[in-house]
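Take a protein:
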Amino acid sequence: MIAFIFPGQGSQKVGMGSDLAAASPAAREVFEEVDEALGLKLSAIMREAPEDQLTLTENAQPAIMANSIATARVLRAEFGIDLAQKGGCVAGHSLGEYSALCAVGAFDLASAARLLKLRGGAMQDAVPVGEGAMAALLGADIEKAGALAKAAAGGQVCEIANDNDPSQVVISGHKGAIERAVGIVKDHGIKRGVLLPVSAPFHCSLMQPAATRMEEALAETPPGAMALPVYANVTAAKIVDPDEERALLVEQVTGRVRWRESVLAMREDGAERFVELGGKVLTPMIGRIEKEAATASLVTMEDMEAFAKEIA
């Protein structure tokens, strides 16, 4: 079984999608539709804007989704590979869960773009700039990271945001608490703590104002039926019910991204191959979670051509 997976924030880079758009009308249509839905030339920001404009959360989130969906549409139009027919399930990392849902028909493209622009803005607005922070803990498992977060909190928020793989956990919260955590990593048997260049402390309880805004938005634009099951970030479990998924997307804003557990759950349910659409971020993590799993990253036309030959 193939699991199609979708990257999250941090996978953006200036120029993303340009080669696909030049090579395929299917990709161009995606970028044009997203531009129209947002009333913004997002495709131009993706193609040529200064990096700091693309990394703005409200731009990065719909841009990453658009790039992933363009990849999926090119795969179908140019190589005859339909995700719903060839795949067994989908999953995405943080905002990538929206890309996954769009890819299996639970959201149309315009709705996914608008929801992610709102989500990005709401997450940015939830905490004043400079008050929050995130750090990657390298050489940390979930138990060590949990003990460190507890020790560093000091009455502030310091929580596990992402359980990425057996050697990388991300923490999020008040800037002071995160900096304290980075300062004492060695005391907890953790190799290194690295502050991340992010504009807000995602996936922690400080994001509650953003969760409230997303609850309202998702009440107006709920997910519909899915052509394939999605593995939700906050439960690491297979979801097929749109109402359940809507509640989990709200919870996801403040909740932990349980990526390591999601990969293990997909493997247990029969996923033999993980195919990342529009990025090369998740496949290395999968290699560290499940060494026996086959992986592929589809970014270029050449990547897709090679993949199409493999599964023909």
User: Anything to note?
Assistant: The longest helix spans residues 57-79. The chain has 15 helices and ten strands. Strands lie at 2-6, 87-92, 132-138, 158-165, 168-174, 192-195, 230-231, 238-239, 273-277, 294-298.
